[in-house]
């Protein structure tokens, strides 16, 4: 009997199998069976994320219980105080999210571990905030972020409200992997143990709002702008509208997308990296002559932005909106004589060079991290202790940013407020946010940043993704679209290749990422997604102007497609 058959038979006949999964299992095709059982779902760059359904490679009540029991065992090894401090738990609008969140609380209670569970859905950054607010040992967020409706996921946080860095995640994973039978775990706690569960509500929300309002740099700016806002059926609806009401901005919600619908019925996609997320918001913007479109992903850690520019609406990339945030924040800190000593900004190895150049123009150092905001959170925690450097901003290319680190994850409500303020501020100067971006290009060079994601599902897809990366290591490109590769970085082997020499790449955890630097100041990076069955290709292409950068981007994308067969 194959491993897949062995796992399948165990599940379909197990006496503790949740009844809802029985029919699904019995009607699986061989292909579905293989995909559900060929491996066990694992932690990636943002915890566990996968398709909902029965199987060891799926998100379901049993795999979540296995993860939570492993986490509970880890907490207990940290002592009685860790158990008393407990775990904050949040959840989004997805299928099973609330059920899984309260099941986690019950299972922790069964292990005599306290928990603080939100009374209804909340954004991921508010879960991060709740960890700190309640002085918890850690946190759990049930969410699949921007993934399609068929997905759900599970994120773990440390006592600072930061997603677990690899060293801590490995310790938890060790405990999870030691559990042999996930189906044997139940969450039946006693009435006395139930008292360990505290339901959180408005008190935590109000303190979070107070902190968000503190990020304003020009709170008295004339707010004569109209903002169209969509939570994409997710968690941002109430918090963001509350924050805009408190600060006096005119917010026009996309009503059809304000219901917490797990099927995302009124949006083609909940992912702000994809054009479909803006379709209805664009309609609203045109009808209301709005200045700004702001769109959140379902768990409200990321935010997309559209800007009215010369009568048309321009959707910015995460690299572009991040660069504009940096420009506004740094320019105002300098103008108000509030720039701290030894200022530092954080972004990732696949984030555009433009933001780094903007920061440098204001004397702000940039430190790069691997993809995953936990690495930025780790840096924040380090300098909070050493005081060597002072945080100014952190962001990723995928629409995630953090203005002030009272949260230790991407925080879309903060980003929405600072961009609304920037929009209002620059409008008084006769400019919009695209005008600001154009000025940054004039000062620092024109860039076109893009990402191409190759979706390869199932066991064969996973093998194909690994082969793409391994083939590139065996035969690295010497040029891309006719432009010489002058340096490459391999984050898996932790080496830098330049001028025929190899030297160590220091300061990063091992990760399956390759990055190629080109002679013209451009670069291309390749990495497998840590949250979806995709191989991602990142392009940061520098040109003499926008047309030149665009043409070079098309050529580079074509060259990489031909090189990898993607």
TrEMBL record:
Q: Which CDD domains match?
A: PGM2 (cd05799)
Which cofactor is essential here? Answer: Mg(2+)
* Involved pathway(s): Lipid metabolism; Glycolipid metabolism; diglucosyl-diacylglycerol biosynthesis
Where, if anywhere, are coiled coils annotated?
none
Stretches assigned to the Alpha-D-phosphohexomutase alpha/beta/alpha domain:
41-180, 208-310, 321-443
**What UniProt keywords are attached to this protein's entry?**
Isomerase, Magnesium, Metal-binding, Phosphoprotein
Q: InterPro entries under this entry?
A: A-D-PHexomutase_a/b/a-I, A-D-PHexomutase_a/b/a-I/II/III, A-D-PHexomutase_a/b/a-II, A-D-PHexomutase_a/b/a-III, A-D-PHexomutase_C, A-D-PHexomutase_C_sf, A-D-PHexomutase_CS, Alpha-D-phosphohexomutase_SF
> Top-level EC class, please?
isomerase
The protein's matches in PROSITE patterns, at most eight in alphabetical order, are given as: PGM_PMM
EC number(s) recorded for this UniProt protein: 5.4.2.2
Give me the reactions it catalyses: alpha-D-glucose 1-phosphate = alpha-D-glucose 6-phosphate
- Name the domain of life: Bacteria
Q: Which residue range or ranges hold the Alpha-D-phosphohexomutase C-terminal domain?
A: 489-539
Q: Which family does it belong to?
A: Belongs to the phosphohexose mutase family.
What PANTHER family does its record include? Answer: PHOSPHOGLUCOMUTASE 2B-RELATED (PTHR45745:SF1), PHOSPHOMANNOMUTASE 45A (PTHR45745)
The entry's protein name is Phosphoglucomutase
